[in-house]
Amino acid sequence: MKQQPLRILHIASGDLWAGAEVAIFHLACGLAADADVQIGIALLNDGELAARLRSVGIPVHVFDEQRHGISSLLLQVRNLIRRLQPQIVHTHRGKEHLLGALAAALVPGCISLRTVHGGIETLAGRRPGFRDVIRQKLDRFVAGFQRCAIAVSVPLEAELGKSLPGMPIRTIVNGIDRKAIQAAAAQPCGPVTPGRIGICFSGRLVAVKRVDIFLAAARTVLDAHPGRYVFYVIGDGPLRAQLEAQAQELQLGSDCMFTGFLPNALPLLNRMGVLVLTSDHEGTPMVALEALALGVPVVAHAVGGLVPLLGSAAQGKLVRSQDPAGIARSIIETAPPDRPTPAERHNLLPPEYRIENCVAAHLALYRELLAGTPKRR
Question: Angle at the Cα of 114 (from 109 to 115), degrees rounded to 5?
Fold first, then answer.
């Protein structure tokens, strides 16, 4: 008798096209390629993630969080689970954890788990306020309805062990489809400054990413080597105006360009000499995996999943301090002597970050959960 397919429903926000959304897309595509898996995706926003999932034929169910309150969303998610009868409900991020965990608990025979893609961003170096404490208590309550948490890096697993006591936690690092990355990177690229080596940050312009440090390091590099480098800030976010003002104060001028959000930033990344990440904390950032898959070395603050990822000198350099001068030195030491062409690049991505390994690890965990393990303590 033919084995019934494993039915999985992922629940995510889909409001952005950032690291977590990229990770979800790669995982969903990998799961959908397995003939023994039946996958659906529920999103709270009809954005870039929804469009990309539809383009590859993955079923998408959108419940617009701008039009519905939390009780209405919970009812709709519960009804979807009743209709699709998934065996596994897999949630991503806070609001989705709440909706997925509670809705799954209302449907017999349904198991839910979560992935935590990064540390708590809301604090950004300050002491937790009343809302933060309430949010954390609510999340801990919701976690009681879930069987397991996935951390995308070993340091994040240790952090979750403190915030979610009693919950089994597994580390499954993010994975990417290198061939898909290379194909997307081969698309036409916008204009780049000729004759200069490109240095970029790519990600959301939010406090935790510390783009202010990237800009300060850019000033130091440009002072040391005028006319040799050009800097790019790829992405958008609430701090864009503030960061553009900082760039103006630093007199970066045409040596630093803000691209805004790019639906496909890979062609530009493919023409960079170095990717720089100066975050306060990270999980396993997808843009770092993309850069390495394209042969672009990474200079990064030594936090989270970046530490095991950047294990060799060829892959870039880990910086223990967020001091802009030290980051500037690492950029200069890591950057190629001449502006590289994509054809001259070699894959720098460690094999354990391939999407096949990520998918296999998820499927193994799903089947463990269905078999009754791991159990909550």
Answer: 150
Ramachandran region, residue 124 (left: φ > 0; alpha: ψ -120 to 50; beta: rest): left
Q: pTM for this structure?
A: 0.89
End-to-end Cα, the chain, rounded Å: 36
Q: Distance (Å, rounded) from C-alpha 70 to C-alpha 103?
A: 12
The side-by-side arrangement of strands in the sheet containing 111-116 is 60-62, 37-43, 6-12, 88-92, 111-116, 149-151, 169-171
Residue 295 CB neighbours (<10 A): 19
Q: Write b or e for each residue in 190-224: b if 16 or more Cβ atoms lie within 10 A of its Cβ, otherwise e.
A: eebeeeebbbbbbbbbbbbbbbbbbbbbbbbbbee
Q: What are 172's two structure tokens?
A: 């499954």
Domains, the chain, ordered by start: 6-175+354-370 (3.40.50.2000), 178-353 (3.40.50.2000)
Residues written for the chain: 377
* Helix, strand, coil % over all residues of the chain, rounded to 5: 45, 20, 40
Contacts of residue 187, defined as CB under 8 A and 6 or more positions apart, other chains included, come to 264, 266, 267
Higher-confidence residue of 362 and 339: namely: 362
Cis peptide leading into 336, omega within 30 of 0?
A: no
pLDDT tens-digit series, residues 42-89: 999 999 999 999 999 999 999 999 999 999 999 999 999 999 999 999
Asked whether the beta carbons of 19 and 287 are under 8 A apart, the reply is yes
Residues 6+ apart with CB under 8 A from 271: 189, 192, 198, 339, 342
Token duo for residue 341:
């062409």
CA distance 282 to 18: 13
Task: Kindly state the DSSP code that residue 166 receives in the 8-state scheme.
Answer: T
Measured CA to CA, the distance from residue 148 to residue 364 in angstroms comes to 13
